[in-house]
Specification:
3 helices; START_dom_prot; lipid binding; START domain-containing protein; START_lipid-bd_dom; 214 residues; signal; disordered N terminus
Length: 214
């Protein structure tokens, strides 16, 4: 049970861009082979985002890194702790409890995430996530996030090259200025994908993928 999905590292404040037209999005960042698009809609004042990059590593290594709870604190921004509440590697289902370390003076956040791992017929791997309102007791030390959705997508471009895209949405709850939230949305996915690149280069061992992704 030590292997778990870390797509919610972007939970801090994001949205499922692929549900909308990318034509509406603004290219907010484009550097170091990482692109971040953001946009808003009338129903949500918090920026929606999509971020993508390519790595010169096998698809299996990139997915395995996302599933590796032991090394997550080395590269996932604001990652505090994660607990696996349930996981079915045959079906690809999982439930997580996560704590996010927010910068002082903000209160830390926690959430329960229900997710699904999927391997498409073309070999593409998708990991879908959504916050649920039950599944773990409330802790007065944290602000519970209940409105979150997010995906990771891995597309094989060559034996040692993978395209990685990440989407996400979360209402951060509490009293956080909207300008701060939207600035964070633009920077956090870039930092995450940049740190993921470094971790992929430094890591030498990867665990086999779960049965649902084989």
């Amino acid at each position: 049970m030590k292997k778990v999905i870390f797509m919610v590292c972007a939970v801090a404040l994001s949205a499922t861009v692929h549900a909308y037209s990318i034509d509406k999005a603004k290219l907010s960042l484009n550097k170091n082979n990482i692109k971040v698009w953001t946009f808003q809609n009338e129903k949500n004042p918090v920026f929606l985002y999509k971020a993508e990059t390519t790595y010169n590593h096998p698809l299996e290594h990139a997915v395995s890194l996302i599933l590796d709870i032991d090394n997550a604190v080395k590269w996932v921004p604001y990652m505090g702790s994660v607990k696996v509440l349930s996981r079915d590697d045959k079906k690809g289902d999982f439930t997580l409890y996560m704590v996010l370390d927010f910068p002082f003076p903000l209160k830390d956040r926690d959430l329960v995430v229900q997710g699904k791992m999927i391997k498409e017929a073309n070999g593409q791997v998708t990991i879908k996530n959504k916050a649920i309102k039950n599944g773990y007791p409330l802790n007065p030390k944290y602000v519970r996030l209940t409105h979150y959705e997010g995906d990771w997508n891995f597309q094989k471009l060559a034996p040692n090259k993978v395209k990685v895209s990440t989407y996400g949405y979360a209402n951060p709850e509490g009293s956080i200025p909207l300008t701060f939230v939207n600035m964070f949305v633009q920077q956090q996915p870039y930092q995450m994908l940049q740190k993921m690149k470094i971790q992929l280069s430094e890591q030498t061992q990867y665990s086999p993928l779960p049965e649902a992704l084989k």
